[in-house]
Amino acid sequence: MEGSSLRHGLVILLTILQFTTYIALSLADIPFHTQRNIEYIKSSCSTTTYPRLCYRSLSIYASKINTSPRLLVHTALNVTLKASKSTSRLMIKISRIHGLMPRVAAAMADCIEAIGDSVDELQQSIGELGHIRRSNFSLTMSDIQTWVSTALTDEDTCMDGFAGKAMNGYAKTMVRKRIVKIAHLTSNALALINNFASTQSNLP
By the 8 A CB rule, do 80 and 129 touch? Predict the structure, then answer.
């Protein structure tokens, strides 16, 4: 009885040991690929105006991006688009607050329209990126650069409407915080797009 229990215990111990060894060996393979992908993102982000934001927003997608310039750009645009849509929804909610000063309400309406345009331009860019080939690379990249540049201008236009101390208050504070972030994300995406546009070597 005692011998049976001992053998049973040894079997369990051996099974656990084999399992932990397998896990350890499996995990040993991850750091190399993950580190390579992360280093690629860090290196690419170093060419942007806001490298820390760039790295923070993209490094969580390292396994998806791998070391592909196209996927890097695609992910940067998607991250920017998601933030822009979220900001647009927030501004619509704020615009419905009763008691907004007429100037603030007007600026908010203009801002909602500008960010809506920015969202459209980012969506167009993402769509075109999916159809890019060596044969249409230069023309398509030029279109994408134009759209993303225009999106950045739209975001700046939004903030211009809240200039001046008379516009200070909750609405301006909330809008500025969000708009600055998406403007920085858009700027970073544009920098990565410009880098991608400078080479065709990564296309199929």
Answer: no
Of the candidates 142, 118, 151, 144, which has an alpha carbon nearest to the alpha carbon of residue 129? 144
Q: Which of 57, 55, 37 is nearest to 45 (CA)?
A: 55
Instruction: Count CB atoms within 10 A of the CB of residue 98.
Output: 4
Most distant pair of Cα atoms in the chain: their distance: 88
Prediction pTM value: 0.80
Count of CB atoms within 10 A of residue 21's CB? 10
SS3 154: helix
Tell whether the torsion through CA atoms of 93, 96, 98 and 104 is positive or negative: positive
Amino acid at 58: L
- Secondary structure (3-state) at 143: helix
Count of other CB atoms within 10 angstroms of residue 145 = 16
Each residue of 159-181: pLDDT tens digit? 888 877 766 677 778 888 899 99
Taking the CB of residue 174, how many other CB atoms lie within 10 A of it? 15
Mean residue pLDDT across the chain: 83
Dihedral angle, C-alpha 147, 153, 156, 157, nearest 10 °: -110
Token pair of 96, please? 């419905």
